[in-house]
Amino acid sequence: MQPRTPLFRARRSLAAVVVALPLVLAGCSTAAVPAGPAAAPPSAPAVGHVHGIFVDPATAKIFLATHDGLYDATTKTPAKVSDTIDLMGFTPAATPKVFYASGHPGAGSSLPNPVGLIRSTDAGKTWQEVSRGRQSDFHALTTTGGGLVAFDGQLRTSSDGITWQTSTAAFAPAVLAGSPASTVVLATTQDGVQRSTDGGKNWKPVPGSPIIQFAAFATSAEKAPTEAVGVAPDGTVHVSTDAGLTWRASGKVTGQVEAVTAQEGGAGTPRIWAATTSGVQVSTDGGATFAPAAS
What we know:
The protein is mainly beta. It is 7% helix and 39% strand. It is built from 2 helices and 24 strands.
C-alpha cells in the first residue's frame, strides 16, 4: 500500500467539514424529499474503498475504481479487472473501453508514484502512463467535450492529456462531473456547486445550489446531457434537468455513499447508481427509491 499524500488528507478534511453540517443540508434542499418505501438492503461489500463508478451503456457492466484496483461489480461477486492500483481519480472517455485514471501504483508495478494521468484502452485491464508521472495524484478527474479536467491540489485542464494548463479557480473540488459530449463541468465544494461552460477553464458558483458531495451527468448516447444528479453527505439525492443550474431533492440513498454515476432515463428521472460501503444500489426513478444493483 502506498502512503497517502497531503492532498488526500486535505480532501478527507473537506468531506468531514461537509458531513458535519446536517442542519445546513436540511436547509439547502430546493424541494422537500418525498416519502417513499424503504430501500431494500444493498448487497454485501466485496471490494475496498470506492473512488469512482461507471456503468458501460453498451454492456451494462458496473465498474468500480477502488483503492485496490478496478473491479467488475455487475454480479454479487465482484471480479478484479486490473492489477492493484490505487485509483484515486477515474473517468471513462468517449471511446468505448478507454478509461483515464490517477493515483498510486501497487507493489511490483512499473508505473511511477504517483502515476499522474494513466490510460487504459482495454476496459481497465492494463494501464499506460500518459503524463505528469511522479507529479500529480488527481483526486478528482473527469472528461469533457474539450478534454480533461483534474485536481491535484490545483485545478488543471488539458485538451490532449499531455499538456496541462492551470486554472485560476481557488476552490478545492470534492468531485468533478463532466461528459465527453459537453463542455459543461460541475464541481462539488463545501460552499455549493461550481459550474463551468468552457471545459473547466472558467467557473461560476451556482446560486442557491444544494451542498452535494458527489455528482454526475446522466449520460446519453445521442446528445449532450442536460440531466445531472448529486448526492449530499447525508444521502439526499438531488436532480437537475438544466445541466446543474437548478436542483430539486428526489429521495435518499441508504448507507454511506462513495461514488455515483447516472444515465439518461425518462424525462427528469435519470437512472442512478450509487456505490456505498454496503454495495452498489440503483435507482430507476430518478433517485426516489433505490435497490441493490447486483442480482
